[in-house]
Specification:
By secondary structure, the protein is of the alpha+beta class. The protein contains 8 helices and 20 strands. The protein is elongated, with a radius of gyration of 23 Å.
């Protein structure tokens, strides 16, 4: 059995996001294959994904026992190493696993009610197949693309599906999930594919790895599907994890919360206050082990003063900026972080992994620079 992960995508013409996908794929140890190549294609539409993958597999360039990871091209980032992805895939016992999301798309004039109902037998929020990602043995992928290519060529499908391969993939899964020569699965964990269109709040960063909030398990692929409102997460994560510099960074970034509300910095009153997750003044802690931390916003390094107020604007790390992080966050003076809140309600301040949706804020570009500047100063 080969231990190689072949990552295939289809996109033409190439653009900056496809280049970012290639870099993240290769950096994480995948064999990246960007299609179309020399065999090209005729009219380029969503159906071409399957026909191009079929042509590639028939070219004989990979072993049929290889594992193939397929993703969309323009809104995807690989965020886990190929060895970890392969380990999860082999452990699943599946031959082919499809990405899943919390939204059923596309509908048809009849609503595709029967198909939708079959997906809804699964209780996971991630119950509907998303066609932007799948992983499987090359022979299983060949079975898939042969089936769909023949179906498309037959013209025996609902005209409303024209130009969209997702309903074909959904129906293939439903048809093959019980009696089939291959074992197909949906990524209902999710364990591999993070579809961000509506549930970005379900994911967080812990030691710079994208994880599900529910299970804490790492995700392999970020997919900013749908309306692309989450697309900026991809390059910002790439910068944060060190890909743009070629040096991996496993930062322990956390946010502070009190009574379920995140805390940010009130520059007028020099205090911590409840903050929206996309607030540019959201306080982010760069934690070093279980002993020390630095508090940052996009506006600069925080200084926790003995009188319970917070200053900002320090240009170098001094003892006044280094917080204690063992048994709760406290200032150099021994003040607990609760003492710096505008209206302490008696609840303790707790630290949590950085919500992934924080990366949607333009202010996070500034935070990435600050983190890079101070990461070795603790």
């Amino acid at each position: 059995m080969t231990r190689e992960l072949v990552h295939i995508t289809v996109g033409y013409p190439p653009n900056a996001y496809m280049d970012l996908l290639r870099k993240s794929s290769e950096w994480n140890g995948c064999q990246f294959v960007g299609l179309p190549r020399h065999w090209g294609s005729a009219r380029f539409d969503m159906f071409a994904k399957e026909t191009m993958v079929k042509a590639y597999l028939e070219a004989g360039e990979i072993d049929m026992d290889s594992v193939v990871l397929f993703t969309d091209a323009y809104d995807v980032l690989i965020v886990e190493h190929a060895s970890a992805i392969l380990e999860k895939f082999y452990a699943s016992g599946a031959d082919l696993i499809f990405a899943a999301e919390p939204n059923f798309f596309p509908d048809a004039p009849d609503g595709r009610l029967e198909s939708r109902a079959q997906f809804e037998l699964n209780e996971s929020p991630w119950r509907y197949l998303n066609g932007g990602g799948w992983i499987g043995y090359a022979w299983a992928v060949k079975y898939l693309v042969d089936d769909i290519s023949a179906w498309v060529a037959s013209k025996n499908y609902d005209p409303s599906w024209e130009g969209n391969d997702q309903p074909f993939l959904q129906e293939f899964y439903l048809k093959n999930r019980t009696a089939s020569p291959l074992r197909v699965m949906l990524d209902t964990g999710p364990d591999f594919f993070c579809c961000l269109i509506s549930h970005v709040h379900e994911f967080a960063l812990h030691h710079a790895r994208v994880r599900t909030v529910r299970s804490g398990k790492p995700i392999s692929v970020l997919h900013a599907n749908g309306n692309k409102g989450n697309l900026d997460i991809l390059p910002r994560y790439w910068d944060l994890c060190g890909g743009s510099r070629g040096v991996p960074r496993l930062h322990d970034l956390r946010v502070a919360s009190m009574s379920g509300q995140l805390l940010g910095y009130d520059a007028e009153r020099y205090k911590l206050v409840p903050s929206h997750v996309l607030d540019p003044e959201l306080l982010v802690f760069l934690v070093k082990g279980d002993r020390h931390a630095l508090a940052l916003t996009s506006g600069g390094l925080m200084t926790l003063n003995p009188d319970g107020h917070i200053g900002r604007g320090a240009t170098k790390v001094d003892i006044w900026e280094v917080l204690g992080a063992r048994g709760g966050i406290s200032s150099f003076h021994g003040n607990p972080l609760e003492a710096y809140c505008l209206e302490p309600d008696g609840a303790a301040v707790t630290l949590a992994p950085l919500p992934l949706q924080t990366l949607m804020s333009p202010a996070f570009d500034g935070l990435v620079e600050l983190i890079a500047r101070y990461e070795s100063r603790l």
